[in-house]
Amino acid sequence: MNGMDRVAMLAAETESIRDVIAFPKTQRANDLMTSAPSRVEPEQLLELKIKTLE
Fold this sequence. Notes:
Layout: H1 4-12, H2 42-48
C-alpha cells in the first residue's frame, strides 16, 4: 500500500499527510494514542526476559 496515504491526501485536498493517516505521530515521533515511547517497568522486562544496558 505504498503511496496510498498520499493518494488519500490528494483526494481529501488537505495540506498535511497527518490529516489522513489513521495513527499519526507527532513531530517528536510520539504516539498520542499509546503514549509511546514510554518507560518500561522492571516487571515487564523480567516477564519478557530482557536485560538493559546501563
